Amino acid sequence: MNIAINTSGSAYHVDSKGYFGKFGGAYIPEMLYPNVEELQENYLRIMSEPSFQQEFEALLKDYVGRPSPLYYAKRLSGKYNTNIYLKREDLNHTGAHKVNNTIGQILLAKRLGKKRIIAETGAGQHGVATATVCALMGLECVVYMGKIDIQRQAPNVARMKMLGATVVPATSGSQTLKDATNEAIRDWINNPVDTHYIIGSVVGPHPYPDMVARFQSVISEEIRLQLQEKTGNPLPDYAIACVGGGSNAAGTFFHFMDEPSVKLVAVEAAGKGVDSGFSAATTVLGSLGVIHGSKTLLMQTDDGQIVEPHSISAGLDYPGVGPVHAHLFDSKRGIVMSATDDEALAAAYELTRLEGIIPALESSHALAKLKDINFKPSDVVVVCLSGRGDKDLETYIQHLK
Ligand SMILES: *Cc1c(COP(=O)(O)O)cnc(C)c1O
User: For residue 197, what is the domain's CATH number?
Assistant: First the structure.
């Protein structure tokens, strides 16, 4: 793990004030200063300790099952007349990329002497990944989850409870992810000394967007080595990932940001269509504002009220986007596309029938754009398969073709 803050002078990684271009920072109530400053002052030092790195790497290897395979998808490649590799985060313990980050943060929390962990969750994947590492380390775990999401995601609620976590319903607002995040922040304000808040994506006040990206950067670190081995070149022509808050995409892009030949494609959820009023295409629909402690692009009305997002996939149903992605878009380094609910469903069936892999609905959004990019037969394309589809079977079966 390379932990020095932006030693390369990169225009795309975080700067010393916690910004990505004009996005990021820490816009927090004064009550949160002690917690956030403690993290700002310590995260790079702790992450660079050899004992931390050893413990992190050992758990990624033997507990999560890393490195995750980079799979050459032959039949899918044939269909699009190019070379498509899937980064198999779906094969990780707990079924998605989220666990890379929760392992990193729980090790950090332990070194800061924290006894209690809180988290927010939408679909429940981050809640499960957090409850899992709390069981592993014997720490108390409280997960905030919108009341509606609790009803929609019953299997993940059951998993969290079996793992020993307390699941607290967020009953304000639309009773979904944004409201669960508000409740978690409120808890943190009330418990500043013994509690660490494990945020599940590259969102929130600095240092979270950078810290989470670094924990997820193992994805592109492995892709480089695996591509070198398979193709003789560590660089793909395209790196493609779906974006909710943007953590799997940040991990997939991390070690390619300063390689201009690599096209970075972020795929947002268009819901029923970007202009339908039922969308989560934050970058296209959003404008500059502050959400959950970070200055970034978010969906809001003219007077600054947050617009409720919509996506078939709960993991992409967030009205903001991580500041790193706002900056990649703003600087034109990144390419932002969006996929509708229907496109994602079709892509999920396509991957399942061509490769025998059932992807998470979130990941299906990334797969859905393969048809819209003009690849050359010689191109090397890496798609991050951020998670497996078990949690989405009910939705898939309803749309069975
Ligand atoms: C949570 C989740 C996402 C969206 O989160 P990011 O931070 O944007 O990666 C994507 N895919 C899966 C499988 C998820 O569980």
Answer: 3.40.50.1100
